[in-house]
Specification:
Layout: H1 2-15, H2 22-41, H3 43-46, H4 52-63, H5 65-72, H6 75-93, H7 95-100, H8 103-115, H9 120-127, H10 129-152, H11 159-175, H12 177-185, H13 206-248, H14 252-263
Helix pairs in contact: 1-6, 2-5, 4-13, 5-10, 8-11, 11-13, 12-13
């Protein structure tokens, strides 16, 4: 459905004589929908209920890799060019979007999701077929709710705000590694779910399965922080360029008045 909507949008632009970069279309499918299909139709989803490391890897990729790949296709820009710009601007300007569309909240949300792997709730989510299947839809949507506004809110947030986000993203490198490390170093099974039937000769033991889950969470979380840092750096550069252009457009009298107002503590 998402692929059809995206292709219809691109086709409508071309019928109007407008261009849409091919790299964005390729990114949307090759980096977003294709990995999603590989995850949800492949090994990770098939053995998600039996193997802890398959479940944790699946969730980590769905909340990190898939949303980042879909965002590479710039679906919000496509929708805006098709006439939904006013609606998108209102959504982006809402308080909820501005709260969730920054690296500060993303750090807390992702850390909270990974901390679930340290509780028995992770086992319940993994073995319940209805919940386990619904995670394939809910988790990517949570990731998109954070990534898409983060890429689009550069014009809304100030350079100082983005600089703070950039610093907190480095803190996230440490925070995200904690759940994985704790799973890797723990010598007792934390989800309290007994071993599944070992249908393969390479099937890991319960504890080794948990250790592998910790390794995968740690690796994916640290690797996935790199594109977030890149997004924030690009936003920072764009915002700084816009703010600098705004100062350049001021006359000498306007600049002097702004300087005096600043010295008086006025905005």
């Amino acid at each position: 459905m998402a692929s059809a909507a995206y292709l219809v949008g691109v086709a409508r632009l071309r019928r109007r004589g407008e261009e849409w970069p091919l790299r964005r279309t390729i990114g949307f499918f090759a980096l977003g929908l294709l990995p999603y299909a590989a995850i949800e139709l492949g090994f990770l989803a098939v053995f998600s209920a039996e193997l802890r490391w398959a479940f944790s890897t699946r969730i980590a990729l769905l909340i990190f890799a898939v949303p980042a790949g879909i965002a590479a296709g710039r679906p919000l820009d496509l929708a805006a060019r098709l006439g939904a710009g006013a609606v998108i601007e209102r959504v982006l300007a809402s308080r909820v979007t501005r709260i969730f569309g920054n690296a500060m909240v993303a750090t807390v949300v992702i850390a909270a999701v990974f901390c679930l792997f340290l509780t028995p709730l992770a086992g319940i989510l993994r073995v319940n077929p209805v919940v386990e299947a619904s995670l394939g839809v809910v988790v990517p949507l949570v990731g998109l709710a954070m990534v898409l506004p983060m890429m689009a809110l550069g014009a809304v947030h100030t350079g100082t705000f983005i600089a703070i986000e950039f610093l907190l993203a480095f803190v996230e490198l440490l925070i995200d590694s904690v759940p994985g490390l704790l799973l890797r170093l723990n010598d007792s099974v934390v989800d309290l779910i007994p071993d599944a039937v070992q249908t393969m000769s390479w099937w890991p033991s319960t504890l080794h399965d948990q250790h592998l889950a910790g390794d995968m969470i740690w690796f994916i979380a640290e690797f996935a922080d790199v594109p977030i840092l890149v997004i924030l750096l690009v936003r920072w550069m764009r915002t700084d360029r816009v703010e600098a252009q705004g100062f350049d457009d001021l006359s000498d009298e306007e600049y002097d008045e702004m300087t005096r107002a600043h010295l008086r503590g006025e905005r």
